Amino acid sequence: MPRTPRGGCLDARGKKTAEAIQREVAKEIAALLDVIFTGLRKSGRFDLEATEMATRVAAHHLGAKVLEGLLSAPASLEREVLCPCGQQARFHEMRSKQLTTVVGPITIQRPYYVCAHCHHGQSPRDADLDVQGTECSPGVRRMMALVGSDTSFDRGREQLEVLAGLEVTTKAVERHAEAIGADVAARDEQHIHCAKQLDLPIPCDQPIRTLCVQMDGTGVPVVAAETEGRAGKTEGQAARTRECQLGSVFTQTTVDAQGRPIRDENSTTYVGAIETAEEFGLRLYTEAWQRGWSRAQIKVVMGDGADWIWNIADRHFPGAIQIVDLFHARQHLWELAAKLSSNNSLRQQRWLTHKLQWLDDGQIQKLVGVLRVATGHYPEAADAIRLEANYFEKNADRMRYPDFRRQELFVGSGVIEAGCKTVIGSRLKQSGMFWTVRGANAIIALRCNRLSGKFEDYWADRQEAA
After folding, report:
1. Who has greater pLDDT, 379 or 424?
2. Which of 96, 164, 212, 390 has the most CB within a 10 Å radius?
3. Beta strands in 147-268 (DSSP E)
4. With the C-alpha atoms ordered 231, 237, 238, 244, is the resulting torsion angle positive or negative?
5. Residue 189 CB: number of other CB atoms within 10 A?
6. Residue 92 backbone phi and psi in degrees, to 5
């Protein structure tokens, strides 16, 4: 409905308000200078830090007055607005709303409308300013999302107070960080739904030499209600964590002086969630497609050998080169050596000498043959040896490390290993933390978004939609 101006009185009121603001600002600046110079005369010395902090407080106070005046003095207003019930809501009165902004608390006046049909009241100005249902401005909510995704919510509250001069509660940081993370996750779900319906953008960019997908899982400590009925790692004990699947996608174009592949700078993006492997597979496929999977000349999927990883690779990335992380494969041999000679490190090293070299050389069948023979020499560990022999035999084609090196491909999954620590561990696995799955997934989505370099684009899109 077109806006109905209220004639010149409202324009005059707006002009008068601006003039009043200017006078108040001038008075505040004069008062601040008077306080500073009075302090100088009394102390005889200049305390720069104290002056800095006093100036910031005054600047925020002045900024709050300016912002309050700007938001409370619209040039016109509508007499009627559309109600959700489909009828017209008529202007009722001007109502005040308290907001915490980046320059401090303010109180704004905005028009309030009531529908005579359903008696629903609303203030459309709140939606225009993106403050509907909240007392924090978009700028403050953005700050709380950033600190809340980086550190504990209480620590984030302290950082906002010290660094930005904002006083908010720990619960507010938690609530808004998780709300924005949930919004990020919801937008991701929209992309995943499009991928599920095969409604994907047609690639039209330059070819990519090598696109690599890596994935792994890591436990996130959760509250007891989230593990009810789930068995823990220790027999007879309940689970204390839920597994978060994390995936990374990056490109690789060049190699270093020694011929080792180099990950392209700023090319790594992450996705992750506490969800089923089937759900995660579609999430990772969506990210890989958006990154240019169809344009990649060489496609690689890498993991630690877990069955769920290769199930995802076979289903969503058919035809890709599959590689078992070399360091995980070595770890299998190290752990087996420790079982065979638990108290003799020298014997462990002797047992490993040739076997580690065979693994590096891709001689997996030779390694498997020796392991199967070893079951007769170590009857007490025969089951463990047989299990490892099966592991290497099943993954033999994924352990052709000389071939992979000749193709200048990574043979280690260090990117996703580091991601499990930096994306998940450093924030969600701090001492004393226990999460709900909903809260954990919100922060995981927010951290993946930020560490993938997508947050600014997300925030711009969100503001535009608001």
Report:
1. 424
2. 212
3. 208-221, 241-255, 261-263
4. negative
5. 15
6. -110, -50
pLDDT, tens digit, 9 for 90 and up, residues 253-269: 999 988 899 999 999 99
DSSP secondary structure letter of residue 242: E
Q: How far apart are CA 439 and CA 446, in angstroms?
A: 11
In total, the chain counts a number of residues equal to 466
Alpha carbon 255 to its chain's center: 30
Which runs of consecutive H residues, i.e. helices, occur in 44-152? 48-72, 124-128, 138-150
Alpha-carbon gap, residue 423 to 421, rounded angstroms: 6
309-336 mean pLDDT? 96
The model's pLDDT over 63-73, given as tens digits with 9 standing for 90+, comes to: 888 888 888 76
With beta carbons less than 8 A apart as the criterion, state whether 150 and 156 touch. Answer: yes
> Which two tokens mark 263?
């990950």
Calculate the CA dihedral of residues 368, 370, 376, 380 and round it to 10 degrees: -70
pLDDT of residue 141: 97
Tell me the pTM. Answer: 0.87
Please tell me the predicted confidence (pLDDT) of residue 75: 56
